[in-house]
């Protein structure tokens, strides 16, 4: 138990250090725009398919479950579509999208940086006066700060459309009753976007931290990659709770 | 000049280097030998400031490397050429970008001049016109030579070589050592070479330091005393 | 246009190759179940590693999942003053859906990724070939215990996770939404049936099986050193996540 807490503390301190350095180099260093664009392609475009598939299924599941309950309780499913959209925007969309990106992009970043560490490429960078955080972490930070909110928007849209398919095909609702944005408030969209931006800032930093900590051959790279998924998924779940809680308190007040 | 004074380093409570001291004068060449796992690679990383010693001091010329931060180390590293044991070529860049990287990173050399100097350096290591290839397309010996080209592209006055011929066949080994010697003599560079190839090191280096189990067991010329671990090793019998 | 089709085709073939490889692998694992010959030490070691070592992370995840479910339903609850349904909304969402889903994704990250990394390292360092040379079948010796451990432990962890989710939910309901724990408990016990709980358990078992098969398959298919291991872990968690969502969809459809 104590070992576990010490480990959690070390990880947090290490992540905070990488975050601090990233912010330092954002203020100080130069940025190669081409590298950022490459990373945006890697993090954003190459995750689109994955996000569409997973969030599509998520939307279908959500509409299934809520329609099933709604039918049992009220004998009617016409409100399911419009009533699910706020929940998707506010919580399920960004959170699940964040988890998916933590899985795909987080492991990718940790694997890439981790194998550069164990093959001494990071040492070679430092010998050429390119600081690893400046050179490797910063472009990924910029890229995911832009691309993760974009992916979340795509994810929410896909989920809702997949829900439409289930709703019309299985529960025979009229698409025009389903496609109703009336119940979404600005606050829902803001909460969702805020979450996506925060995930965009944390996932690359956490994953890069795990990669930079990699030690010793292929075993070390594997361990770093695992560490990256666990840490970044946990961060997504905890931050989702935290931001959701803050939003709840703000709205209630 | 490279000076190491009473350096200690341990990992997880296990001492890897204890009380290591030696000096390489400017323009001098030093061979660092010893059995595997003796801490030779670690020592090189301490010298260029990639790691910090637990105790003791490391100097390059007048600067105390062991006490400087990353930013202060920058100008010093710009004067070092380092050859890594496992090539450490950037696997997402082609050969040209790899070799030119230290120059491009300075930000003071125009890109056309970088290209020109890369081409010249690659010709020096007998690998002309391979700028477009990726590291994974090269053989082990070619990678080592590209690594050599990258380490010397900025004509460093100090060269650190970590087992430059590890895992190479005898022909490639011979070629690498000839190249090393030429590059060192062209620049009059101070060189520190870690290797097991005692017979190649002997004509190349004017001093030898042998480390065993984290301690210096021999320091000075090649004529170690008889009945000594060092004597056995340096005569080539202890290599296996 | 032609280039686009060529690329789509390449993606399609790559995907088919993975799916086909996974199917053949699954067949190979299934065939070795008759008769089952398990290495007892390897099996126990994996039960410990998979179950005990991922317990903390699952407990934390589940507690957050329960808390988040209460916050999200709390928005409606406060709006309609329907305090007596919080327990039901929580139980239904978490036990049937969010619990198994999030625990599954976390399990895939913690255990699945670790497993791919371990088997991948064994593959690139030729340890798997060494087993073959000793006439030991890697699938029976390495894969079977791992898959078994993941199926059993994922199911058990889901049950334990539900408990932690319940604590997370009760605490959040009490201190953030302002619903007394007895009100929460009553509506929970009133509306949530054993079927809801079992529904989630069946899902969890199927996720465990999917994660086990996928992570072992990608681990043994690693090529090319340290970089290869990293890439394999990446591919493994991505495939597991897709598998979890697809399975979840069909289970939801079949078990409603």
Shape of chain A: elongated
Question: Mean pLDDT of chain A, rounded to whole units?
Answer: 90
Which protein chains make the most extensive interface, counting residues with beta carbons within 8 Å of the other chain's beta carbons? Answer: A-C, 54 and 55 residues
Order of helices and strands of chain A: HHHHHHHH
Model regions low in confidence, pLDDT < 50 over at least 5 residues of chain B = none
Count of DSSP H/I helices of chain B: 8
Estimate the global geometry of chain B from the Cα principal axes: globular
Mean pLDDT of chain B equals 86
Structural commentary:
The complex is a heterotrimer of chains A (253), B (240) and C (256). Chain A has one domain (2-252). Helices cover 88% and strands 0% of the residues of chain A. Chain A has helices spanning 2-28, 33-74, 80-118, 121-127, 132-171, 175-178, 186-212, 217-252. Chain A is elongated and about 70 Å long. With 240 residues, chain B is of the alpha/beta class. Chain B folds into two domains: 2-79 and 156-234, 3-Layer(aba) Sandwich (Rossmann fold), CATH 3.40.50.300; 91-155, no CATH class. Chain B is 36% helix and 25% strand. Chain B has helices at residues 40-47, 70-77, 95-106, 111-124, 140-152, 170-187, 198-204, 229-234, and strands at residues 2-11, 14-24, 29-33, 55-60, 63-64, 80-83, 158-162, 190-194, 207-212, 215-220. Chain B has a six-stranded mixed sheet, with helices on both faces. The mean pLDDT of chain B is 86. Chain C is built from nine helices and no strands. The longest helix of chain C has 40 residues, at 138-177. Chain C is elongated. The mean pLDDT of chain C is 90. Classes of the chains: A mainly alpha (253), B alpha/beta (240), C mainly alpha (256). Chains in contact: A-B, A-C. Chains A and B meet through α4 of A and α2 and α3 of B.
